[in-house]
Amino acid sequence: QAAMTHKEADAWQPINTAPQDGTTLLLRSAKGRIASGDFGQPIGWANPKCWIWPYLNQEPTHWQPLPAAPLPQGE
Fold first, then answer.
1. Rounded to whole angstroms, how far apart are CA atoms 26 and 60?
2. Cβ–Cβ under 8 Å, residues 51 and 59
3. pTM of the model
4. What is the average pLDDT value for the chain, to the nearest integer?
5. Is a pLDDT exceeding 70 seen at residue 2?
6. Residue 13, burial from CB neighbour count under 10 angstroms (0-12, 13-18, 19+)
């Protein structure tokens, strides 16, 4: 895993400040796993809303907005 720059580390916000309106975010666990996800109701689940991301057995501890998509070549 590549080391984060100081600017990248500063971009991470505590999870309790994350929007919970279904916005897709970049999420990070205490173990350093990073993936996109959102807060919502999993399809087919009766459970209350939760963080939906690939690491089901880990709660995210930090978040940041997704980076801007790259521009197509030639623009």
1. 10
2. yes
3. 0.76
4. 86
5. no
6. middle
